[in-house]
Amino acid sequence: MNRVRSVIRGCGSYLPNRILTNEELTKSLDTSDEWIVSRTGIRRRHIAAEGELTSDLATRAAERALLSAGLPAAAVDLIVVATTTPDDTFPATATRVQAKLGVTHGSAFDVQAVCSGFIFALAVADNFIKAGQSETVLVIGAETYSRILDWTDRDTCVLFGDGAGALVLGAERDAEGADDAGRRGILSTHLHSDGRYRDILFVDGGPSSTQTVGHLRMTGREVFRHAVTNLASVAEEALAANALPLAAVDVFVPHQANVRIVDSVARRLGLPPSRVVSTVDRHANTSAASIPLALGTAIDEGRIRPGHLVLMEAIGGGLSWGACLARW
Ligand code: UT7
User: Fold this and answer.
1) pLDDT one-digit tens code per residue, 156-204
2) Which of 29, 198, 221 has the most ligand 1 atoms within 8 A of CB, as the residue to mutate?
3) Quick check: is 127 catalytic?
4) Cβ-proximal residues to 56 (8 Å cutoff; 6+ apart), any chain
5) Which CATH class is domain 4-173?
6) Ligand 1 atom showing the smallest separation from residue 154 Cα
7) Residue 73, pLDDT above cutoff 80
C-alpha cells in the first residue's frame, strides 16, 4: 500500500491592470496617504476593469499556475475556487473557470471562508488527494472586492483590492514506511471557525436575507484583536502538530490585511522580518487571493525555493481562520 501526499507543482497569479493609489482615494474621501500607510501599510491596490469578473482573474492565475507546473489544463481533475465575490449567486465560479480552461471532466466547486478561503480550499484539495479521489488539483483564490465595497465608507473601502492566485497540487505516492523527514508537499492544515463573531465582519446583503449583494461592514479594531491572537495560536498549532520548531520555518506567508497585524504576529512568534513575506503595500487586502498572490511574489523574488518550509495562515469573516504548513 502506498501513502499519498499533495505536492505543490506550480504557482500563478494575476492582478488587474488598473492601479488605484491612496492619493487618488483622497479626492473622494476624507482620508490621507499618511493615515492609510501608517495604519495599514497599504500604498495601492488593483481594481478589476468593468466587465472583468472574478472567474476571469481566476482563469488567468490558473493558466499561469499550469504553465509553471508544465501541465496542460486537461491534467486537472478538480478545481476549487476560494471566493467571497463569485460571478453570480450560482453556478459556482469554479465551474466557469473550468469552462474557460476548456476542462470537461472532473469536478469544480467554490469554498467560501472569506479571507481564510485559500487555506480552507488548500485543506479541501489536500484531503481529496490524500483520499485518492483527485490526482491534480487547481486551488485558486480569486476576488473582486471592489464590487462589494461601500466607496463612501473610509473605514473599509481603502483596505481592499482585487486579484487572484493559484497553486497546482499533485498526488505523489510514497512506499509504506518511507521516511517523512524533508519530504516535499503539504504537511498539515488546521482550520477553525467561530460564528459568534459574525457581526464584526460581514456583508449586509445576500440572496436569502435581502435579495441584494450588499456591502462589506467591519469593526476593524475588534477584528485586529482577534487576528493577532488567533494567527499566533494557529501557527503554534501547525508547528506542534509536525513537531517542528519555529526556527525550521524558512518563509512565513500570512494573510495580507494590515502590515501591523503581520508584524505583531511575527513578533509574537519570534520570527525575524527577513523570513516574513509582506505584499500588503502593493496588493492591499485581496481576501482569499492574498496568500497565493504573496506566494507568487515571494517565488518571483527568489525567497521561496524548493525544499523551503513555508507557513501560510489567514483569518477572516466568520470568524474563520487557519494555517497550512508545506515543504516547497
Ligand atoms: O481580512 C480580514 C481581516 N481584516 C483585518 O484584519 C482588518 C483588521 N483591522 C485593521 O486593520 C485596523 O483596525 C483598521 C486599519 C481597519 C483601522 O485601524 P485602527 O488603528 O484600528 O483605527 P480605528 O478603527 O481605531 O480608527 C482610528 C481613527 C478613527 O477616528 P476617531 O474615531 O479616532 O476620531 C477613524 O474614524 O481613524 C479614523 N479612520 C480614518 N481616518 C482617515 C478610519 N478610517 C480612516 C481613513 N482615513 N481611511
Assistant:
1) 999 999 999 999 999 999 877 666 667 899 999 999 999 999 999 999 9
2) 221
3) no
4) 48, 100
5) alpha beta
6) 48
7) yes
